[in-house]
Description:
The chain is an all-alpha fold. The protein folds into two domains: about 1-50, no CATH class; about 50-435, no CATH class. It has helices at about 5-25, 30-45, 50-70, 75-100, 105-115, 125-140, 140-145, 155-170, 180-185, 190-215, 225-230, 235-255, 260-275, 280-295, 295-315, 315-325, 330-350, 355-365, 375-390, 395-405, 410, 415-435. The N and C termini lie far apart (about 60 Å).
Amino acid sequence: MNIDKIRLFFLCLAWFSAIMNVIFGQSVFTFGNVGVLSLICFFVLTFRSLKKESNFIILLLLLVAFIMLDRIPSFEEFLTGGRFILVFSALLPTMILLRSVSIEVERVKISQNLLKNLPTQISTSGFQIASHFFGSVINTGTFSILSAALPEDCDKEYRKAIAEACLRGMNTSATWSPFFVAFAIGQAFIDKTNSLIGIACGVFIGFLFNLISLPIFANGLTFKQIKLSLACLSPVVPILSLIMFSVLTVSLIFDFTALSAVVLVMPIMIFIYSVFNFKNISKIFSNSKSWLLNTSDDIIVISIAMLIGHLISRSTTITDYNIFINSSILPAWSLLAFTPLIITLFSFIGIHPVITSTIALSLLSSGQAEIHPALLMQAHLVGWAGGTMSSFASLSTLTCSNLFQVESRQLAFGPNLLTAVIFSLSSGLLLSFVNLFL
C-alpha cells in the first residue's frame, strides 16, 4: 500500500467521522476523536509534499497564532478545536465528489454545447452567467466544465476574455452560495440565522454586480442577448435548484448549519444518482481520487486556519483587541466598509482570505462594535470573492489558468484586478450604509 492510499484512507475516515458528528452530535464523542486523530495522520503524511505557497500560508497562520494567543492551548483545547474543524475537512472532499459527478451529468453536457454555440459577441456574458450559477454549487469545478465548452479553434485573446469572465462569475457567487468554504468559515463566527440573512444580502449584491458588469465587458449587450445567454442554463436549472433547495431545507428543518447540511445531503444525492447511473461510478471514483490528492494542500490550510481562528475566538486576549477596536476613533461603519477591501488587497500580495477573514471575523464578531452580524457575514463573503477573483495565489486563478491555457499573471493582473477593488469597496460602502439604519 503506497503513501497516497494511506493518506486517502485517513482522509476518508475523517470525512466519515465528520458525517457521524453532524448526524449524532456529542452522542458520538468517540467518532469525533477518531476523526481528529485521522486528520492529524493525514496532515503528517501530507506535510512533506506541500507546495511552497501552502507552507508560506501556514507560516503566516502560525505567526498570527503567536501574536494573538496569550499561551499555548492545552491538549484538550486542541482536541475540542479538532472536533470543531472536522466538518471543514469534510467539505472539500464532498465538493470534489460533487464535481466528479457533475461532469458526467447529461444535462451539464447539453449546457456545455449551448455555450459553445453562442455568438462570439455575447459569449463573455454567457460564460460569466453560466459560471456564476455553476460556481454556486461546484465552485472551481466550474472551470472544468466551461473550459470544455470553448470552441476548439478559438485564439488566445478569446480564451483570456472567457477565462476572466468565468472568474468574475464563479467567484462572486461566493457572496450568496452556502457551498463555498468562505460561507463555512463565516458561519463558524456568525450564528445560523444571521448567516442566512447574509445569503439574502449576497443574492442582491451578486445580482447587482452582474447587472452592472455584464454590459461593461460585453459592449452593446441587450436584454435579448442576456436572455440568450441565460437559455444556456435551462437544462441545469432544475438540478441546481433541487440541490440548493435540499441543502437549505435540511438546514432549516434539522437546525444544521449550511456547512453541515452540505456535508450530509450531497453524498446522499450523489449515491441516489449513482444507483441510476451505475456505468459512471468507475470514472467518478477515479476522478475523485485524483482530485482529492491534488487538493490536499487546501484541506490542510483551511483546517489549520479554522483551528487557529477557533482558538483565537476563545482566547482571553481577544478581549484586549476588542477593547482597542471599541475605543478606536474609527466609527463602526468604517470597519464594515473597509473589511472587504482589506481582505481583497491582502490577497493581491499573496495573503489568502482564509487568513484575513479569520482574523477579521474573530475580532469583529466578538466585539461590541455596532455592526450587524448578517452584514459582517456579507462583508467577509464580498472580500473573499474580490480577493480570490484576481490573486496570483488564488486557487481559482491557478485552476482557471491551467484549464483555459492562459498565464496566471495575465489573469491576476488583468482587468479583474480593478474590478475586484471596485466591487469590494462599493459593496462595503453599501453594507455600511445599510448598517446605519439597523
